[in-house]
Every structure is written in C-alpha cells, then in structure tokens.
Amino acid sequence: MSVHVNRRSRRLAGLALGVLLGTSTLFTGMAPAHAAGTTALPTISLLIDGKGVASDVKPTIENGRMLVPIRAIAENTGAAISYEDATQTVTVTQGTNKIRLYIGKAIGYVNEKRTILDAAPMISKGRTLIPLRFVSQSLGYQVEWDKRAEVAIVNTKKSAGQAVSATVAPSRMYVVQPGDTLGEIAKVHGTDEDDIKKINGIDDKNLYPGQLIALPKDAKDATHPVSALLKETPLLAEDYVFPLASNSYEPYGDSYGNGRDWVDGHYEENARSHEGVDIMTQKGNPVYSVCDGYINRLGWNEYGGWRVNITDESGNYRLYYAHMEAYAPGLELGGYVKAGQLLGFVGNTGYGPTGTEGQFDPHLHFGLYYNDTGKSFDPYMYLQYWEKESGSIPAS
To answer: What's the CA gap between 181 and 18, in Å, rounded?
Structure first.
C-alpha cells in the first residue's frame, strides 16, 4: 500500500509509521476512542496489507507487546494455524517457516530454534491471542506501530521505495474544458502529451469537463487554472492531503447536490440534497485526515453512521468523514489530529439507528462546511486538487 505518495511523505512517515513495534512505552495509555456521554465507539487496532482487520475480541497489550486473535493472522495473511488443546500448543506455518507457541508460556520455536518471548500467548473470551510482532517478523513481514493512531500495521510483502512527487502550484492545475483533448491541452501549454498522461494516469478516454490535470514542470501556467474557480484558497495550501491511500478507491465524480432519499428515519425520493462527495472503495480501507485540526464531533449520526467532524486549525472550515466501519483507537472528542493521521476505516454505516449498516455500498462520504455558518460547499474540486498534490491515482 502506498499512502499519500508526495513530498509530504516524510512528514507522514514521521508521525504515523516511524516506530517499529517492540518498545513497551509505545503502548502506554492505549484506550478506545470515545465521545463524552455516548456508548463506546467501534475501533480497529490492526491494519494488514492496507486493510483494517476487525475482531470480536480486541487486541490486548502484555509487557508492551500487542497480542491479537489467532484468527486475525490466519484469515488475513494466508498463514496456516493449528491448535492442539491437550498441550495448548499453537502452530503457525507459512511456506517453509514454522512457529510453535504455548499458551501461558514465554517460549517459542521458530523452525525448531528455541526463542524467549516478551509476552506469552493467552486465551481471552474463548479466543487464542498470540504476540503479533514475534509471529509476523518470524514470518518475514514488516511490522510497524502507528503511535498517534494506536494501530499496528503489518505488511506481508516488502513495500518498494516511494517516489516523492513535486509540489504543483494551483496555477499549474488545469481544469478540463468541454471538447478538450490531451493533445490540444499539451499544445496550448507548450508541453508533451505523454508527460501529461504519465503524471495524471489518464488518456482521452477518461477525460471529462471539470477534471483537474497537473501540468508538467516545463509547461506554461494553466489557461484555465483551478485557482480561478475556487475561492477558498487556504484549502489549496500544501499542508492538505487526500483522505484515501493511492490505488485504494474507484474514480469518483461530483455527487454534491444530488438528491438523496433517506430523511428523518424513512425513504422519500429526492427528499434532501447531498452535502458531500462519495468515493467508492472497499470496506476496511484506511481513512486519513486531510488537515491538521480538532475533533468536534465523534460517534453515530443517523445519516452518516459512524462519522467524525474535524475543525481545521484556522477555525474556518469543518471537514466531515462519514459511513465508517470503525475508528482508530487514538481518537477522542476535542483531540488534535495531524494531516495524514489515520482516522478510521471505510464502511457502509448509517441510514438508521446506531449500528445500522449495509444500506448502501462501502464508500467514504466527504463533506466541507463553513465553520461559522455550518453551510456546506462543494468539495469536489478540492478533493481533485489534494489528489493530484498527493500523487494519489485511483485504481483502474
């Protein structure tokens, strides 16, 4: 998984992925996300190959090590796991690697080599929990700890180095006009058509009016720049990032203002106007904060399901993330978040009482509001701009 592949990746890495699992102090104070006066919120503490992994038994911390349900490893890494009740022995096998662990004992064997563990496997609520870091690294996985979000991250395949794309000024973001072709856009701006295709991951077949195109370094300033259309120029600052990881979502259009049928607990055709943009993606995919700011709403909303509202650091705007499956454990009402911080995981919750899900396909609903009036405005062009700035290209 590549997360926000851009010149900000150093910043994101520093606050999200910079520390390996293994230091006991990393887990101090780990607690579920909550909002005052509400029931406990659903949280996910484990990310495997870019997907949040939910479990009926939450991971636990022993001696500074995270223990996770054995099922989470088996179902999400392809490892084969067996349990022998008589000897309380857990065996994990993948490829030529074999790990043997014992419930309640701080010893284990990796390919028959004896090893001392920092935390022993345990039984909790009828589920077997095993030490995540020890098992994952013994199988050759990359394991990291997102300290700010309080989420363990496992990648079963080594990720390649991430390229860092240069900043593209708003004046060099071209807004596609009716009848445009890439060849004509390249000619007008004195650049190469192939370079435009490469930078943007597009061709004439998926070119449409209103689309944003980042122009190459050697191009002239855009004849129809995005900066001429968007009056909220603070939202075009380089601090902002796209809320989903590269290659984790489908191409999206402008659904702001479309009719929506769910209102006041029932369905009624075109009963209200859609106050955001929907980005279709798979359930469990991570959702990241677009900007620095403070959490002003956290919990259930009949329309948005499990949602989070964040007031940006300037206090001028509110950003709304809805229909999530669960939150990262580190969130709390009034808490401060950083751009690129993991907020939660995509779901399909909402349109009913607390816990309702499945009324629509999984997606992220993203909205923008003026903080002083509470009035919404169209986030589509801003999303496109952050997407280009982040080097984020949707899956084909």
So the answer is: 43
Helix (H, G, I), strand (E, B) or coil at 49: coil
User: For tokens 């979502």, what's the residue?
Assistant: 249
Strands laid side by side in the 80-84 sheet: 80-84, 89-94, 97-102, 107-110, 113-116
List CB contacts of 238: < 8 A, sequence separation 6 or more.
7, 8, 167, 389
Question: 3-class DSSP state for residue 93?
Answer: strand
Which residues of 212-258 form beta strands (DSSP E)? 212-214
Q: What angle do CA 306, 308, 309 make, to 5 degrees?
A: 145
Helix (H, G, I), strand (E, B) or coil at 280: strand
What tokens appear for 72 in the block?
């989470």
- Tokens of residue 243, six digits: 């809320």
Give the CA angle between residues 45, 319, 321 to the nearest 5°: 40
Angstrom distances, CA of residue 329 to CA of 33, 146, 363: 5, 11, 21
Q: Residue type at 310?
A: I
Name residues of the chain where pLDDT drops below 70: 1-39, 158-167, 391-396
pTM above 0.85, yes or no: no
Cα–Cα distance between 65 and 55 in angstroms, integer? 18
Which tens digits make up the pLDDT trace of 292-334?
999 999 999 999 999 999 999 999 999 999 999 999 998 999 9
Q: Which residues pair with 151 in a beta bridge?
A: 146
**Tens digit of pLDDT for each residue in 323-367?**
999 999 989 999 999 999 999 999 999 999 999 999 999 999 999
Report CA dihedral (151, 157, 163, 164) to the nearest 10 degrees: 0
Closest CA to 331 of 88, 32, 87: 32
The amino acid sitting at 322 is A
Any bridge partners for residue 43, and if so which?
327
DSSP assigned state of 143:
E
Within 13 Å and on the Cβ side, how many CA atoms surround 38?
A: 17
For residues 43 and 362, what is the distance between their CA atoms, to the nearest angstrom? 17
